[in-house]
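User: We ran a pulldown and think these components assemble together. Before we commit to crystallization trials, I'd like a predicted model of the whole complex to look at. Sequences follow.
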Amino acid sequence: MALTLLTVFAATILTNNMALNYLLGMCPFISLSRSLRTASGMGFAVIFVVTLTALINWPIYNLILVPTGTELIYYIVFIIVIAASVQLVEMIMERFFPPLQAAFGIFLPLITVNCTVLAVSLFMVIRDYDYLTSVVFAFGSAVGWIVAIVIVAAINEKLKLIGEIPAGMKGPGIIMVISGIIALAFLGFAGVVNL
Amino acid sequence: MNGLWRDHPIFSLILGICSALAVSNRVENALAMGAGVTFVLLATALIISSLRNLIPMRVRIITYMITIASFVIIVDKFLKAYFPTISESIGAYVGLIITNCIIMGRAEAFYVQNKLGQSLLDAVGNGLGYTITLVIIAAVRELLGFGTILGFTVMPDGFTPWVVMTMAPGAFFVLALFIWISRTITGMESD
Amino acid sequence: MMVLFVLILGSVLTTALVGVNSVTAPQIAKNAEIKLKSSVLEALEIPFQTENVEQTFSNNVKEAEKNGTAYYIAANGDFALPYEGAGLWGPIIGIMAMNPDLEEISGVTIMQQEETPGLGSRIGDAEYLEKFAGKRFTPQLNLVSPGTADGETEIDSISGATMSSKAFVEILNAEHARYQSTLGGS
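Assistant: Here's a predicted model for the assembly, 572 residues in total across the polymer chains.
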């Protein structure tokens, strides 16, 4: 392939960022960008779930669905795998990291509807990646997403120190502006991925 | 018809933005996405509300998922067959309607507890509100980014397109502006 | 009880899906065929309207096959060769139209690509594809910095889309070599 794994990884963070280029995974972006700590915590959970689901969905699609001609239902299968993975993560956390689980509360189940997770699986199918590339792509995409959300959250936290934000802008409004500026900045990375 | 403004999904409930931004680059894409979401909302309302007394508590989320996913597949096939060019533009994002928070949210908060008639009305309201928002954002982005609306050239000849509007940052900024204006008008405070 | 419910619901929905699929599948296949034919006509620069693609195609283009490779020939002897290869982000598929000597390109179209929107995907822009007309594979196309292409074997890369441009030209070179060996001196 014309593609090295390192290129895929770097590109998913810089030039093909899930949040800043493809505008995915915005729901939690908005609710979690208030605090850096929740943002980064959610980010790590997302990395784990995204990589896990890619690991599982690829074989299911290519080794079970395609050979039997049942790709028709792949959306359904993927989303169920994602829901199950999230349940798994929740159970593991409950068992081994109870304080972490308490801190996350409702956010974990929300990962199920985080578009990034499903999008990674969908893209991997559309672009016809092989297994290793899929996993690297999934991991990189999730890292790219957490990089974006952490930057936005960090700026958002500090914004209060600078001045008064107009009432209509508080919350989602200002998050969108910050995201837009960061997305603009990341456009500067075009062409950097030239290994 | 609360779904249209006050409880507007995009702002006050901050849901469903996921797919919204990516397909807001052209009005025809926004219309197609809005229609798709409205269809899935209606179908979900129909199924979930009709079966609401039969769905076992513990599996309701899975139920929503397979219902929504099935109808999304139907929308996808429909677009691929009868509107191939639009399908090519928004292709992957149709699949992401499954994770559109609005649909799951309404199913859980409303359809599973209310009668069929009311659920269907709610679906129409939310779907319409969502579509209108998306179309407005798309109109701004297409106008400034391409100089056209629905493919018809609107801007005068000397107009240089604002490339930023055709890309991600443009979407963020237009949405931010929109949130600001609508929240200031409706006097809604942030949560 | 729960499992039963999910299974029944799942089966009902899947049946509905299979039904919808059988209704739409023929149309979807037809769309793909029209897309292919339009692409062939476009690469060969044969004018057509969306309504009469099939008609124009059957009037002007013949399908042919040699050594297991399928391709198309226009009335004037130009070849239309389907190509496919790995782009940076996914497969790049399209049609490459060549003069009867199998050396000079008369047109290139891209039917499918997954390159980065706004950057790599610009290889599909009309202005870029037009640059390929008249270029020759002797023995192959060479990618050079944007704006410095000089002569019949050099083609500009797109700034900000170097890897996609590189992948694209490599695909064309590889596919051209493949057709040369299978179609030989026809």
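The first strand of chain C starts at residue 61 and ends at 66. That may be worth checking against your pulldown data before setting up trials.

User: Thanks, that helps.
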